[in-house]
């Protein structure tokens, strides 16, 4: 099932043409987006997602998104949803048509969660490490690379996932050329060691995760230590658990990395899922 809401406050047919062929989001990936999880009619972390949408838009020199309009689209989709209890909301915001008057294009599309993602939530997945060509300090030295923006330019991320599939895996952990961990193509990495949770710093040019932040809030209340610190690839193999987290995948464990089984983290995964769900 899909439900499409436009920024003017109307619903539209998701099976009918809606985007002009000269929209810069389509032609050049010149736009930003967010993915919000809705469970039982309640959007999770909507405020932080809208904050991040605005930050990404600012990095691309896009007009500031109309927050109230996007909030209305979210309500429209949720109120008209007749599918399952979970919805993946895609909030899309582009520069608009080439040569136009500068009016941005924006909409929210509600979709079902795929069976593949649901299975990975339960069973975990195999991942590979791939060099992303990013080094510490690059985001500050070259802000035009938009390393901290959630842009529509996802060709590299999708190419990485195809490479993972060719190697018999389902996901990717991006690294720097010197061997520091970054993130997944569509997720944040969290390492667990004893009662410590660690995620790489955004200063490496990665996107701070809303789901990771929610997990860390809950874990802190329960006495866990949470850290934002560099992680070396070798540490992943020695950890109690490695997890890829995002709005749609929630907390998903990595059971195999670069063809090598990681320590069994099924029980730890169940505990982290409890911590995350306790936020809601």
From TrEMBL:
**Classification via Pfam families:** Aminotran_4
Q: Which superkingdom, per the lineage?
A: Bacteria
InterPro entries in the record: Aminotrans_IV, Aminotransferase-like, BCAT-like_C, BCAT-like_N, Class-IV_PLP-Dep_Aminotrnsfr
Q: Name one GO biological process term.
A: carboxylic acid biosynthetic process
The Gene Ontology CC terms held by the record are:
cytosol
Could you tell me the keywords of this UniProt record? Aminotransferase, Transferase
Q: Which molecular function terms from Gene Ontology are attached?
A: transaminase activity
Give the family from UniProt. Belongs to the class-IV pyridoxal-phosphate-dependent aminotransferase family.
The identity of this protein, by name, is: Aminotransferase class IV
């Amino acid at each position: 099932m899909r439900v499409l809401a436009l920024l003017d406050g109307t619903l539209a047919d998701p099976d009918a043409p809606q985007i002009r062929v000269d929209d810069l989001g389509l032609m050049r990936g010149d736009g930003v987006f967010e993915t919000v999880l809705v469970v039982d009619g309640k959007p999770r972390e909507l405020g932080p997602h809208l904050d991040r949408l605005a930050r990404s838009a600012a990095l691309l020199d896009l007009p500031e998104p109309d927050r109230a309009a996007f909030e209305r689209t979210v309500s429209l989709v949720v109120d008209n949803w007749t599918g399952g209890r979970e919805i993946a909301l895609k909030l899309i915001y582009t520069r608009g048509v080439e040569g136009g008057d500068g009016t941005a294009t924006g909409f929210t599309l509600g979709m079902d969660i795929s069976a593949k993602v649901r299975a990975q939530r339960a069973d975990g997945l195999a991942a590979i490490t791939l060099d992303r060509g990013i080094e510490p300090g690059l985001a500050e030295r070259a802000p035009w690379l938009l390393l901290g923006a959630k842009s529509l330019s996802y060709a590299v991320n999708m190419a990485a996932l195809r490479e993972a599939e060719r190697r018999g895996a389902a996901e990717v952990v991006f690294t720097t050329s010197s061997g520091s961990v970054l993130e997944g193509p569509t997720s944040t990495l969290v390492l667990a060691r004893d009662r410590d949770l660690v995620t790489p710093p955004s200063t490496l040019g990665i996107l701070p995760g809303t789901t990771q932040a929610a997990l860390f809030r809950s874990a802190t209340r329960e006495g866990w230590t949470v850290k934002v610190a560099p992680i070396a690839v070798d540490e992943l193999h020695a950890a109690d658990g490695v997890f890829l987290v995002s709005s749609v995948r929630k907390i998903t464990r990595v059971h195999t990395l670069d063809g090598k089984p990681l320590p069994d983290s099924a029980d730890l995964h169940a505990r982290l899922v409890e911590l995350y769900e306790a936020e809601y």
